[in-house]
Amino acid sequence: MPSKPVDPREVRAAVEAVLPWLTGEADPPARPELAAAVRLTLRTLERAAPGRSVEVRVPPFAAVQCVEGPRHTRGTPPNVVETDPRTWLELAVGRLSWVDALAGAKVNASGSRADLSNLLPLLRF
């Protein structure tokens, strides 16, 4: 079951707070701002693609399970996507494509369902 609903205005505000960093116009944001942007965009993904067959990890801030399919219950799931906060946010807002992230080794995706290309970007600026 996905987490509680996400307010799109809250997501947009959180991402707007870190957008200057993503565009190279500012220094890295404070940890709480970065954490909020990551967590809210991951929750948005979780709501957009409900399910439990893929685990998306953005350490150290959050991980969610999404995408319909076989559910895992113990140990490492068979379908995992893992990346750093900046790469995740660039994917979430369309500043980086899924293909380019994979080609540049910015995303580690394993498993037959671990392709998020049809779900990204989550929002555009």
Task: Please describe the structure with a list of short key phrases separated by commas or semicolons.
125 residues, four-stranded mixed beta sheet, 4 helices, 4 strands
Write a short abstract of this structure:
Residues 31-122 form the Bacterial SCP orthologue domain. InterPro entries: SCP_3 (IPR041629). By secondary structure, the chain is an alpha+beta fold.
Helix content: 25-40%
- Global outline: globular
Order of helices and strands: HHEEEHHE
Strand portion: 5-15%
Quaternary state reads single chain
Tell me the number of strands.
4
> What is the straight-line distance between the termini?
29 Å
Q: Count of DSSP helices?
A: 4
Q: How are the strands ordered across the major sheet? A: 2-1-3-4
Q: Structural class per helix/strand content?
A: alpha+beta
Mean pLDDT: 94
Radius of gyration: 14 Å
Largest sheet composition: 4 strands, mixed
User: Which residues sit in consecutive blocks of at least 5 with pLDDT less than 50?
Assistant: none
Pfam family, one: SCP_3
Protein name: Bacterial SCP orthologue domain-containing protein
Q: What does this molecule look like?
A:
Helix 1 (8-22) crosses helix 2 and helix 2 (31-48) crosses helix 3 (85-93). The chain contains 4 helices and 4 strands; from the N terminus they run ααβββααβ. With 125 residues, the protein is of the alpha+beta class. A hairpin with a 3-residue loop joins strand 1 and strand 2.
How is the topology of this model organized?
Layout (H helix, E strand, L loop, with lengths): L7 H15 L8 H18 L5 E5 L3 E5 L13 E4 L1 H9 L4 H6 L3 E4 L15
Parallel strand pairs: 1-3
Antiparallel strand pairs: 1-2, 3-4
